[in-house]
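Quick board copy: two proteins, each given as sequence then tokens.
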Amino acid sequence: MPMIALGYMAKRIVERPDWLDVPSVRDVYAVSDCISPDFTDYITFWAHNGFWFFDKPSRITRLCSQHGIALDDLTFVYYEAHPQQFKNDDHTWHGFGPHSDVKTDVSPPINPRLLGFDIVCYSMQNSPECSPLSCNHVAANVRVNTHCLIDTLDYAIECLETGIFDNAEPGPMRVIAVYTLESKADGEPSDATESR
């Protein structure tokens, strides 16, 4: 099944905190902002798309410019999701989509680099909540890479279906691919001008 383009985010990626006792982890690229925070409390600006991310990196850079947010320490990431979310309570998969009242038109990046897969809870069915790999120490019980992410989609699905995440956080859970960008201009048409 093809992955769903969710959009972009800019984050302040932090090194593994001491309390996350997984020595192989170097830094935390979790989708949630519990450890590595988003660039700001962006939801209040209502510039995000129906997946609660951004259609283009320039939407983020414009908000930073307008609100005096420094870009220097931000890492721009791009997200895609497995097209179904997993319900912990009955171990079933169900489709999901963007919020119907919010425009979603994601421009895919040019040369993204896949870092791995996060598993993220969506009990409210809008913005990402917790990433149990890091937030709930589930990374201590599964194979993760240096970014506290799972290397393959198949293994992420296997971890969900075997119940490792059942008691971590309320579901449903979504498997999200995390990519970094070569530059902040990735995902922008070369002659793009923004009207929003």
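And the next:
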Amino acid sequence: SFGVEATISNCSNNYGPRQHVEKFIPRQVTEVIDGRRPRLYGDGLNVRDWIHVDDHNSAVWAIIDRGRMGETYLIGADGEVDNRRVVEAVLRQMGRGSDEFDHVTDRPGHDRRYAIDWTRLRDELDWQPQYRDFEAGLAATIDWYRDNEAWWRPQKAAAEARYAATERVL
């Protein structure tokens, strides 16, 4: 409409270092660091295509460098994992039993599945994610949160206070 040359990208769920503690994976990791039980919404079978933030960044650069103006590119990693399996993996990697979590009331309108078809990015721009092993990427993420408590600690109490107003253990 206004002559702006642009491309659009839409991405699946990111994980990795420096993500705010209100987001799903950092919240679970920091809860375990603090000696608390992670909380899982509903039955935990909500599926997300998890992509490491470094892969998201690299895909955006591929779109900038090789993408066609005016096109939309979806960024994914074929990393579909349900939230329960994510929590169990966090607990296992942090030396806790994979069942040491609490179910809490589900969020209103919580989508059951987010899926991305990133075929165009792969085929047209010859892009591939580097973090294909979710468990390895998760382990590096856990290490980052363990090593950088000074970065996330100031945000944690306020984030948990917001959740406390809506969550109820089942």
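Board note added afterward: The two ends are 50 Å apart (CA to CA).
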